[in-house]
User: What shape does this take?
Amino acid sequence: MSNGMKIGSLHLDNPTLLAPLAGVTNLPFRLLAREAGCGLVCTEMVSADGLAHGSAHTLYFLRSLPAEKPLAVQIFGSDPAVMAEAAAIVQDSGADVVDINFGCAVRKVIRAGAGVALMRTPKRAEALLRAVRQAVRIPITIKIRSGWDRSGREALDIGIIAEHCGVDAVTIHPRSAAQKFSGRADWALIAALKRRLSIPVIGNGDVRSAQDAAQMIADTGCDAVMIGRRAIGYPRIFTDVLCRLQGQVPAPEHLDQRLDVMRRYIGLTVACYGEDIARRLVRNRLGWFAKGMRGSTALRQAAARTDAIGDALALIDAYRTAAMVRGQEASAWSGPSADRHFSRTVPPAATVAGWLRTASA
Ligand SMILES: Cc1cc2nc3c(=O)[nH]c(=O)nc-3n(C[C@H](O)[C@H](O)[C@H](O)COP(=O)(O)O)c2cc1C
Assistant: This one.
């Protein structure tokens, strides 16, 4: 199980995948997941219309770096010709897999006949998959839900159609369109789909720990596990899962390691987008990593107020110092070399002083 898997012609080192997450799985985040051991990373959903029309904003989502490979790009849309054109653009961009969104339950997407609406229109789904298959050589995957209702009938039907159309793997998040993210993912449906198909089935939904991942594989027989929400702020989940799949017990995370990941995320964001964009992105996103940490609200609020990358980095260092003063686990630390040039930047005194007061209260 831990010795990798194949999706069509593509060999993955291991059976863990990062879920497409709108607003989250940008290039720096994907690099982080890959560094943690993830077998295949994925972009957020990208508009096929936008790609086909050459929208600069949309094409930006295709930016990639060799270090994150292999990469899947997820596209959404409902017009077979447009989807085929978009898939060809994705292939030309150097992506390893094109993934097609059959699961988005946002009203605007459904109204356009895309996302989970495709699960109710099997003829259109089939035409779309055939068109995409003809347009690209790289592996194609689809990501589905249970369907419009919870019965799972549509998931099984679409799975069969996909296999006949030459799709190379199916990911299932077994919740219905109406459920969105409520209730529990119905893992029994993953097992039913696995029994029905001969192409790989990737299970998704509610994997929050290494134990959950192992359980999903044991319960359903799925070929790989895709992780979404738990990876937000805790990309180390992939390291934990790999460890567990090799029969070992994952080591608990130390505070220092979490703080290092924050710094790494900042460093990667600056490297990918430049300091100006990174400054705005990091402000809103550092809070993800603070979840569960003592004083996390104060840290998140302080991060949201930072005006410069140096402020954000200094905030992390101040948190480390405060933890050390409290006697919490903290050891001598030297940051990743890529971040070294930031380490001497000093934040406004008021930012740190204010935050330190709240954090150590
Ligand atoms: C913030 C957020 C953004 C998401 N964006 C996408 C997306 O762009 N495409 C997609 O297929 N699913 C998307 N999803 C669904 C996830 O990929 C995944 O199927 C779902 O979160 C269940 O997996 P999890 O329990 O591991 O989080 C999104 C979910 C969240 C929470």
Notes: The radius of gyration is 21 Å.
